[in-house]
Amino acid sequence: MAEDYPPILDAAQVAELLGMNVQMVRRYAREGRLPAYKLPGGRTFKFFRDEIYEFVRSHPAADAGTEVNEPRKTSRSQGSSS
Fold first, then answer.
1. Quick one: how many helices (H) and strands (E) in the chain?
2. Do the beta carbons of residue 13 and residue 52 sit within 8 Å?
3. C-beta of residue 25 within 8 angstroms of C-beta of residue 11
4. Which residues lie closer than 8 Å to 60 by C-beta, 6 or more apart?
5. Rounded CA gap, 25 and 21, in Å?
6. pTM: predicted TM-score of the whole model, two decimal places
7. Which residues are 46's β-sheet partners?
8. Of 59, 63, 64, which Cα lies nearest the Cα of 28?
9. Which of 32, 45, 46, 65 is in the most buried spot, having the most CB atoms within 10 Å?
């Protein structure tokens, strides 16, 4: 997996790796939610591959012991249809 990506990634590569939209990756980088860097005077974010992998490891979708619940189904009110 690590060999599939270069050591320094751009936002599009991080989006592909994480299965996210590129705009969300940029937003998360601006907000400090993803580890990212900008060169002085630069406009684009750069990401270290190993830091992204570590970020993913430290933010699991669910703990191993956590039960994942099915989404709740909402019941629609039974009103008269016109």
1. 3, 2
2. no
3. yes
4. none
5. 7
6. 0.70
7. 37
8. 59
9. 45
